[in-house]
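User: Working on a comparison across species. This one is Iron dicitrate transport regulator FecR from Methylobacterium oryzihabitans. Can you predict its structure so I can line it up against the others?
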Amino acid sequence: MRVSVLVPVCAGCLVGLAGAPADAQTRDGCRASVLSGPPREVIECPGGVSLTVEQGAAYRLVDRNRDGRPDVLDLEDKAALIEVAPHRSGFQVRTPHAVASVRGTVWAVDAQGAVTAVLVEQGVVAVSRRGQRRAALLRAGDGVDVAAGGERGPPLVKRWSAERRLRLLARFGR
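Assistant: Here's the predicted structure for Iron dicitrate transport regulator FecR from Methylobacterium oryzihabitans:
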C-alpha cells in the first residue's frame, strides 16, 4: 500500500516546477513529468515519495536529515496529492495553519487562504495546529479544518461529505 496525501501549495511562493519538461530532473533529486486533464505535474522522489501538484503550484521539499530523501513538504496555497510508500514513516506536510503527519494511510491536505483542511481516506493521520503539540487523530472519512489564529488544542474532527471529498480529489484527475 502507498500512502496518499492531497496537499495545497502556493503559486510563486517557494520552489515551483511550472514549465518543467516531462521527465526532467529537479534540483531535489526528484523526477518530474507534466500531465494534462487536469494540468498537473508528477514528481517522483527517492525513498518512496510521489507528489502530484496542480498547475501553478509552488512548494518546497525539505530533507531534514540530509539522507537524499525528502521528509517534509512546506506549502502555502493550492493543492498537491502526496503518495508515501508504507515503509516511510514521519513524512510531514506543513502549512501556515497545521502540521499533518503520516501514520500509514491515504490522506489529503488543502491549504486555502486562512484555513487548512485535512481529510483521511484510509488509515490514521495526526493533525496539530502549527506551534502546538496536541494533535487530533483522524481515521477514514474524518476531516478537520484548521483556521489561522488563536485557537488552542487539537482541531475538531468531523465527517466529510462525499461531495467535498470528491471535489478535492477531482483536482488531480481522481
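For your comparison, note: The first strand starts at residue 3 and ends at 7.

User: Helpful, thanks.
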